[in-house]
Design brief:
This protein has 292 residues and is an alpha/beta fold. The protein has helices spanning 87-101, 139-145, 173-181, 183-192, 198-203, 219-231, 236-249, 254-268, 272-283; strands at residues 9-12, 15-18, 34-35, 47-49, 59-63, 71-76, 108-113, 129-132, 135-138, 149-153, 157-159, 196-197, 209-211. Strand 5 and strand 6 (71-76) form a beta hairpin. Helix 7 (236-249) packs antiparallel against helix 8. The radius of gyration is 19 Å and the shape is globular.
């Protein structure tokens, strides 16, 4: 478990992270804190991991059903400590994420805070979406950068502002931001500690989608959920190896990347899902994938 959240991790307003990929980097630095107002409670009842919840489930794991089956929601709920990170909470998160990694029925994971505080997530092989409905500063934006896709409300505010506190981003910001928006612009934003709204974030490539905020303040989350629903019908094995091929391929030259793609493609050939996809196409019906 390498670097920590960095001294500043502010997530204000309604900020929900769909599964993120940076919790391993958050475990080792004690005392990292921040604010993440969590917004509205999630409707469905669900399962929870908690060993020291002090009268509440500190980590809630909820498996959605009906048209959202395959989407899992992880929610932090340490209201007595404003979701401040501690070893116990990180241990529960690692346990939950490890369980999700081996669950073939999981297609997309939404990571959110249910009370004011701070939260983090762990590496997952499935698609991840960050839904930013409020302010994501410092560690909050670093967590969003660790996701595959970012969606924000036009009124959202984002930035890596650590240099204002005479520190630098410490949870991947100096590495992921330039890979996302380019080196020169990333330096400008980090050097100036400037924040951008949703519209500007979209124009510089920091986010994929910008939406007008609604009265309930969850427009970005609703857009993220709609994206997750688009992912659900696709072959689970294909989704995982596609993510693997893209992530690993981006770190090497094109020739090596093509070799990685070929190796990942080969993993889909012997699967039952591939045969099911061909049969469904031939029979003109929706496929019934099982992740096998």
């Amino acid at each position: 478990m390498a670097a920590a959240l960095g001294g500043l991790g502010l997530l204000q307003g309604r900020v929900r992270l769909a599964a993120a990929t940076a919790a391993a980097s958050l475990r080792s630095r004690p005392g990292s804190r921040g604010l993440v107002p969590g917004g509205a409670a999630w409707p469905p009842a669900g399962r929870g991991y908690s060993s020291e919840a002090k009268g509440e489930e500190e980590l809630r794991v909820r498996y959605l059903d009906d048209e959202n089956q395959g989407i899992v929601v992880l929610g932090l709920n340490r209201s007595h400590a404003k979701n401040a990170l501690n070893k116990n909470l990180l241990k529960m998160m690692s346990k939950a994420v490890d369980a999700l990694k081996s669950d073939k029925k999981v297609r997309t994971v939404i990571f959110r805070s249910e009370v004011p505080g701070i939260f983090c997530a762990a590496n997952l092989p499935v698609p991840t979406i960050a839904a930013i409905d409020g302010i994501a500063l410092g560690g909050g934006l670093e967590l969003a950068l660790a996701c595959d896709i970012r969606v924000a409300a036009s009124s959202a505010k984002m930035g890596l502002v650590e240099t204002k506190l005479a520190i630098i981003p410490g949870a991947g910001g100096t590495q992921r931001l330039p890979r996302t928006i380019g080196v020169s612009l990333a330096k400008e934003l980090i050097f100036s500690a400037r924040t951008v709204d949703g519209e500007e974030a979209k124009s510089i490539g920091l986010i994929s989608h910008v939406v007008e905020q609604n009265e309930s303040g969850d427009a970005a989350y609703r857009r993220a959920l709609a994206l997750a629903q688009e992912f659900l019908p696709q072959g689970p094995v294909a989704m995982r190896v596609a993510k693997l091929a893209i992530n690993q391929g981006m770190e090497v030259d094109l020739v090596t990347g093509l070799a990685i793609e070929e190796a990942c493609y080969a993993q889909t050939i012997p699967t039952k899902d591939r045969i099911e996809g061909l049969l469904a196409f031939k029979e003109k019906r929706p496929p019934r994938y099982k992740g096998e």
